Amino acid sequence: MRLGRIASFFSTSVLLGFVFGLALIISLKQVPKILGLDVSDQNFFALLVKVIGDLGETSLPTLAVGAACIAGMILLERFLPKLPAALIVLIGSIAVSAWLDLASRGVAVVGDLPSGLAPPKLPGAGLESVPLLFVGAAGIALLAFAEAMGPAQQFAKEHGYEIDANRELVAVGAANMGAGLFQGFPIGASLSKSAANDQAGAKTPASLLVAAAATALTAVFLTPLFRVLPEAALGAIVIVAVSGMERIGPMVRLWRLRRSDFAVAMVALLGVLVFDILPGLALAVVVSLGMVVWRAAEARMELTGRTVEPPDAKIHTASPSPGLLTARPEQMIFFVNAAEVRTAIWAAVTHEEPRPDVVLVDLRLTPDLDVPTIDALTELHERLDSVGAHLWLAGINPAVRERLTTAGLADRLGADHLFTYFAGGLLAYLNLLTVGMDTRRGVLTELLEFIRSRLGQSDLDQHGRDTLEAVADRIQQELHEQGT
Questions:
Q1: pLDDT digits (tens, 9 = 90+) for 123-145
Q2: How many Cα atoms within 13 Å fall on the side-chain side of residue 386?
Q3: Domain 301-481, what architecture?
Q4: Where are the domain boundaries for CATH 3.30.750.24 in the chain?
Q5: In this predicted model, what pLDDT tens digit does every residue of 420-445 receive, in sequence order?
Q6: For residue 207, which of 202, 270, 317, 378 is within the disulfide window of CB 3.0 to 4.6 Å?
């Protein structure tokens, strides 16, 4: 099904805020371990208030262990970056804990851990439970995928490689199927473990196979060694690992480049902190999509062939060409903005004196037409026809032409008023004219400017480039003969 395209709904700004908020939650949940406090709460701010309120009960030996581990990791990463700092601190803390008997000094340790591997077993839920489990499973899947894509995209950017969202989704699904068959919890790409893996110098997925093998061997043979491991050491390792995700610089960059992207990132960050992970992510995605729709709803166009600004029209104007009004939308026309585009073009027509004979609309950025867009173009045609003007459409691809034919609008406009290229519409208008030299020169100048801008775009094939260059040469020759 290639549902990896869901990742396109997680913009970079959303993921940046989401990862930042997730890293803050992870870090704060480790603070009680560092301070030796018996505090737990799912909500970030409630946990923060509890930690601050219980600071007077901090265990100094535990704090000393946690601070020493954090300092040790920072120094190792600073001066000996090639060494696995987390592993060294882990082994060192176990050795020191056993030597000094830290458990007797009030330092919380991991304690006895179950050993061995769970045998494979089919889940006990029957088919009648599937509808009840579906909603929760869908939420877990979305959350696991978002947690996977956030760190994956950030690490890909830092190390210069590409990721395939579909393969990431398949990997998460396969891992959860394996976990289900071995009586495990739903799993995802852990931010803290991914950060720890990256800090350890991992470069390829082989590190995951090594980690899986080491985990299996540890679970079978080495769990007694972790009995005296201080929980403060684990908390310190996690805090240092995720600290790289709590960077202010990228947020400042969003603020400087585009405030709306910064706002989306902050919605994701605060949403995760206030409403928890899944609701916060969903809120940020909804806000992000809402902003996209809001921007798309603006009828931003380049209108030429008019001299009066219609009120409230968000447009850009260019040099006038009397008798011809050209409308070139700067985004795809679809149900969100179709009515506003129609209104803006009609306002330009009604404000022009004398009114244009032809309105040429460029649909090059519209790869297909939905029903509201077809209805808007039909209504525009009817309004123009009522005042003796004609609607021409350019930039028509085969899919758009088929939609127009099916709707009957192609017959009403006439096949000779539908053009594959915008330049074709302008040339057709020139051939239609029997007017003075000034009008022809104005249209030729506009056409030459369009061709030059089109030649500067990279999506033009060689045949199209040769054709436009030949047309430009002919126009330049005629303008030269006219003394322009």
A1: 777 777 777 777 667 767 766 77
A2: 9
A3: 2-Layer Sandwich (3.30)
A4: 301-481
A5: 888 788 778 777 665 455 666 766 77
A6: 202
